[in-house]
Amino acid sequence: MPLILAIESSCDETAVALLRGEPGRAPSVLASLVASQIELHRQFGGVVPELASRNHSLHLHALVEQALRLAAVRVGDIDAFAATTGPGLASSLLIGSTAAKALACASQRPFLAINHLEGHLLSPFVGESQVPPHLALIVSGGHTLLLDVAAAGRYIKLGGTRDDAAGEAFDKVGKMLGLPYPGGPEIEILARDGNPGAYAFPRSMLHDGHLDFSFSGLKTAVLYTLQREAGNACPADVAASFQQAVIDILVGKTLAAAHHCGRRKVALSGGVSLNQPLRGAFTETCERAGLDLVLTPPSLCTDNAAMIGFAALLRHFAGESSPLNGDIHPHLPFL
Ligand code: KG4
Ligand code: ZN
User: Fold this and answer.
1) What is the pTM of this model?
2) Looking at the CA of 172, which ligand is closest?
3) With 90 as the cut, is the pLDDT of residue 231 above it?
4) Does residue 167 have its Cβ closer than 6 Å to ligand 1?
5) What's the 76 CA to ligand 1 centre distance in angstroms?
6) Domain 134-296's class?
7) Ligand showing the shortest atom-to-Cα distance for residue 272
8) Mean pLDDT of 104-130
9) What's the pLDDT at 77?
10) Around 130, how many Cα atoms within 13 Å sit in the side-chain half-sphere?
11) pLDDT (mean) for 117-139
């Protein structure tokens, strides 16, 4: 059974995974390790690319060794090496992809260049024997995407954000509220004590008849509210009202997309899909609409290498490989 080693280093998480699988069977994730740099970047209020790449190169080797030990395999047992090659921070992508290429070259095994977004897209199905036809919503720090998925590798883009990504809006509003980076999980915690109906923030483009998103108007509305109330706004109410607006937009657009493409299964992935009220709203709405909902397991929502390994495994089964002289693509579009 093919064994894949995958590396993810597109932003501030250094991650290594080992997966073994065969076509038509759920793969075994033998190891999935993530060395988070969140604490390091927090003091700067966001990711510092130079620091991120330095730390990838400092920690990657040890992480690969640890994954091999955990899975009780040797480098010589690995059938293919994969890495994220885009989109992401150039200097971060280079570390992981160069390491995977070097391992592939030394072992004379194929290298697979994986699109980070395909990793997120497939992450709800890492424990499954196949990727069923479905409507996918990816909500991460860099992307908000709706895709019609016929099968692994057969994707049609239905909509995306025209400005900020959902996670980016969470992080920027978090900053406005004086919360630590990343703002997403902090807003979720603060919002627990707030009233989601306290402020009527805009649900931009919700009923515009297309499947694109816009979050910059919402972000600006929060800023103006905070300025207008000059220190008197209740932060928990602002957080809860903002979060509710994001949830309404994501749920509304996803339902419209499912209706548009006729899919009865909806899958949610990406860092923002960790948000419990969002998961709850999707669960309720899909149940009411008779749609089958697949939520990504929490450990696979934020950046990880298991999702990259799963995408690579499926491409390996399809006989694909990537050239060793291929470049990284920081702005790689998904489709
Ligand atoms: O998928 P991810 O790890 O990285 C990208 O590919 O961008 O997503 C990170 C994003 C950040 O914007 C973070 O604030 C957001 O996911 N996030 C959340 C939560 N946990 C992480 N947003 C809302 N609620 C959360 N609980
Ligand atoms: Zn990601």
Assistant:
1) 0.96
2) 1
3) no
4) yes
5) 35
6) alpha beta
7) 1
8) 97
9) 98
10) 8
11) 97
pLDDT above 90 covers what percent of the chain? 96
Q: How far apart are CA 119 and CA 84, in angstroms?
A: 9
Span(s) in the chain for CATH 3.30.420.40: 3-126+303-317, 134-296
At 51, list the tokens. 């620091």
pLDDT (average), residues 134-159: 97
CATH of domain 3-126+303-317: 3.30.420.40
- How many angstroms does the Cα of residue 241 sit away from the middle of ligand 2? 25
Please check the confidence at residue 335 and state whether its pLDDT lies above 80: no
Span 39-66, average pLDDT: 96
Least Cα distance to 142 among 163, 121, 173 occurs for 163
Quick check: CB of 242 below 6 Å from ligand 1? Answer: no
The confidence band for 271, taking pLDDT boundaries of 50, 70 and 90, is: very high
Cα torsion through 176, 180, 183, 188, rounded to 10: -110
Which atom belonging to ligand 1 lies closest to the Cα atom of 143? Answer: 7
Measured CA to CA, the distance from residue 75 to residue 5 in angstroms comes to 9
Q: Of the residues 116, 117, 122, 170, which should be mutated to test ligand 1's pocket, given the most ligand atoms within 8 Å of the CB?
A: 170
Ligand 1 closest atom vs CA 165: 12
Cis peptide before 235 (omega within 30 of 0): no
Per-residue pLDDT of 66-89, as tens digits, reads 999 999 999 999 999 999 999 999
Instruction: Kindly identify the ligand whose nearest atom is closest to the C-alpha of 140.
Output: 1
Quick check: CB of 81 below 6 Å from ligand 1? no
The angle at the Cα of 253, spanning 251 to 258, to the nearest 5 degrees, equals: 95
For residue 10, which atom of ligand 1 is closest to its CA? 6
